[in-house]
Every structure is written in C-alpha cells, then in structure tokens.
Amino acid sequence: MVSVPSDQRQAAALAPESVKILVAGGFGVGKTTMVASVSEIPPLSTEELLTEASDGIDDLAGIEGKTTTTVALDFGRITISPKLVMYLFGTPGQDRFWFMWDELARGAIGAIVLIDTRRLDASFAAIDFFERREIPFVVGINHFDGAEHRYEPEEIRTALAISPGIPIVPCDARKRDASKLILIRLIEHAMSRLPAQASA
Amino acid sequence: MTGDETQWFDEAAGPLVRPYAMTGGRTRPGAAWLDVATQVVTVPSASERLGLGPEHQAILDLCHRALSVAELASYVNVPLVVIKVLISDLMDRGDVVVRPPAQALQAPGRDLLQAVLDGVRAL
Ligand SMILES: Nc1nc2c(ncn2[C@@H]2O[C@H](COP(=O)(O)OP(=O)(O)OP(=O)(O)O)[C@@H](O)[C@H]2O)c(=O)[nH]1
Ligand SMILES: [Mg+2]
Questions:
Q1: Domain count along chain A
Q2: Best exposed site among A12, A108, B56, B72 by fewest CB in 10 Å?
Q3: Rounded to a whole number, what is the distance in Å from the CA of B52 to chain A's nearest CA?
Q4: What are the pLDDT digits (tens) for B75-113?
Q5: Considering only alpha carbons, which residue of chain B is nearest residue A45?
Q6: Phi, psi of A92 (to 5 degrees)
Q7: Which of A11, A19, A45 sits opposite B74 (nearest CB)?
Q8: What is the pLDDT of residues A20-65, one digit of tens each?
Q9: What is the DSSP letter of B61?
Q10: What's the whole-number average pLDDT of chain B?
Q11: What is the DSSP string of chain A?
C-alpha cells in the first residue's frame, strides 16, 4: 500500500462532506429563483459542453458551430457546517437535455420539481424522470401572477398523475422561507423512503 | 458564431479550439468520475508550478479552501468537462486532493440526511 504524504492528508481533512439537491421543472418555472432565495451566495452558473456525439443529442439543428453547444447550469450553496456543504442545482427543462440529469442525480438527496400552474405540462418530463428512476422528489406549486385558477395540490396530483406518496407543496420560489420549507419536506420525504433502520 | 451559447469561446478560434488548447485535446478516464459536488483542496506543498497553465494555477489558488468541481468551473469560467480534466491533471501531480460527495453512487444515508435536515431547519 502506498503511503499518503502528510500534507495530502492535511489537505483532505479540509474537505467537507457534500450533498446535492436538484431543482427541476420546465422552462421558466422558477428554478433559478428558488436556488437564489436559499443560497448563501448569488447563484453561480457554469456550463456543460455538448457535442453531437453526446447521448441522444441529435436535434441541435440551427445551432451554429455544428459540433458543440453548451447547457447552462445554475447552482447555489448552503454551508451547513465546516464539515458539511449542500449544493442546489437547477438546470434547463428542455427535454433534449435530460441526460444531463443522470449525472446530477447520481448520489443526490433528491429533487424539487417546480410547477407553473399556467403551464402544467411543462414540468411533466421532470416528474416522469424522477419517478422512473425512483429518486425522491417533491412537487412545488408556484402560483404565478396571472394564473387564473389556484390549484389545490390534489387537483395537480390528478392532472399530472403524480403518485400518492409524493408530497405536493404550494410555494413561492421568491420567498426564502417557502423555499426552505420545501427543502425540509424533500429531506423528510427522502428519509421516509430509506429502508427500515437496522437495529445496529 | 454569435449567441450566448458560444460567447465563452475564443472568437477567432471558434468552438472546441480553446478547450482543446487547455486540455491538450485530452479526455481523461480519471476525470469522468469527478462529480459536480466533489470537493477539491490544494495540497499545501504544491509549489513547483512549472508547466502549469493559467487555469491550473487558478485552481490551485482558489482551492486553499475546499471548493466543488462546479464552483471551480464557474470561477475559472470553463465548461465542466474542461475543469474536470484540469483537476485530474493536478491530482496526478499530487497538487490537489479531492473528496467525492458523501455517497457518490447511492443516495445519502439516515445520519447524513438528519444532519442536513437539522442544518436546513436552522437556516
Ligand atoms: N409569482 C411568482 N413568480 C415567480 C416565482 N418564481 C419565479 N417567478 C418569476 O418567474 C420568472 C422566471 O423565473 P426563473 O427563476 O428565471 O425560472 P427558471 O426556471 O430558472 O427559468 P429557465 O432557467 O429559463 O428555465 C422570473 O421573473 C421570476 O421572478 C413564484 O413562485 N411566483
Ligand atoms: Mg434558470
């Protein structure tokens, strides 16, 4: 076995544990707004470079430069303690970028899927994605100004065929407390789905 | 070659050229498992910076405190795929160490979730 130099060990001791939560949903549903409302830093953005060879990306018609395009990814950070940091990732809702969620979702606590009640179907792909992969998620209903009808959670459940166990929470992504509450609901939901605790 | 999707690129060189210049056109198997939330920290003795490009240097300067792969990509202003290769170079040199997310392959366990829950409640 190779011994690790002590300064490497020292550096490693500085690295906190990290956890991820995804903020998903269709175009313009309030993902970045929610990340911003709870993040300790203004949301950062980065991008992933896609080539035509990337999985399933064959419909980049119209993108100049032919070989590549980029997908923007917003994220925020919540330092829970010097030993634990949480990241919130929001990414575009276009169907053609869903494969990106596979990497993002790996090892994540779960996802918050936001819904704009004026365009319910915009978030259907996200719900379907997490349901299929059995990734814990909760649904947040953003009541945008101009929405004619204030949906009750059970109406949304029926309209989008959301499974009975999935929490559906009215929220306002602009409000820190509402975003905090939905994070709490998600973590509690993820805990409720853990296998029953072994007695050890 | 307009539009914000491509504004990151070297205008004269066009797409692909700049990431290739920075990474030497390499893709690295070691880079693929770096998660967006993986923590990166500079090793204190990392000193000989000969042969390192400005992006490598920027990573070493930023990581005196731990930062995630995603934060580094954002601060250094390169795509994720590029930052992963650069970090992987520095790992090979022993200049940085990384800590993958708590549960790199499966969902986090009960104790960790409880710690996160307590933390979020206390925000
Ligand atoms: N009334 C209301 N408006 C909201 C809410 N959340 C977001 N908005 C507004 O909706 C607009 C779009 O919000 P964004 O956070 O940019 O949405 P997004 O999902 O990140 O959008 P894309 O990244 O483009 O898909 C902004 O003008 C927000 O201020 C909400 O809960 N209620
Ligand atoms: Mg956004």
A1: 1
A2: A12
A3: 19
A4: 999 999 899 999 999 998 999 999 988 766 667 889 999
A5: B74
A6: -60, 145
A7: A45
A8: 999 999 888 999 999 999 999 999 999 887 655 444 333 333 334 4
A9: H
A10: 80
A11: -PPPPHHHHHHHHTPPEEEEEEEE-STTSSHHHHHHHH-SSPPEEEEEEEETTSTT----TT-TTSSEEEEEEEEEEEEEETTEEEEEEE----GGGTHHHHHHHTT--EEEEEEETT-GGGGHHHHHHHHHTT--EEEEEE--TT-SS---HHHHHHHHT--TTS-EEEE-TT-HHHHHHHHHHHHHHHHHTSPPPP--
ipTM: 0.86
Phi, psi of A98 (to 5 degrees): -60, -30
- Spatial distance between the Cα atoms of B38 and B11, rounded to a whole number of angstroms: 31
The CATH number given to whatever domain includes residue A179 is 3.40.50.300
Q: Do B101 and A17 touch (CB under 8 A)?
A: yes
Do residue A11 and residue B99 have CB atoms under 8 angstroms apart? no
Query: Which residue range(s) make up the domain with A54?
Result: 15-199
In a domain, A9, yes or no: no
CA–centroid distance, B69 to ligand 2, in Å, is 20
Q: Nearest residue CA, atom 3 of ligand 1?
A: A144
In a domain, A1, yes or no: no
Residue among A11, A110, A183 whose CB faces B97 most closely: A11
Q: Edge to edge, what strands does the sheet with A17-24 contain?
A: A44-51, A68-81, A84-90, A17-24, A110-116, A137-142, A168-171
In a domain, A6, yes or no: no
The answer to whether the CB of A119 is under 6 A from ligand 1 is no
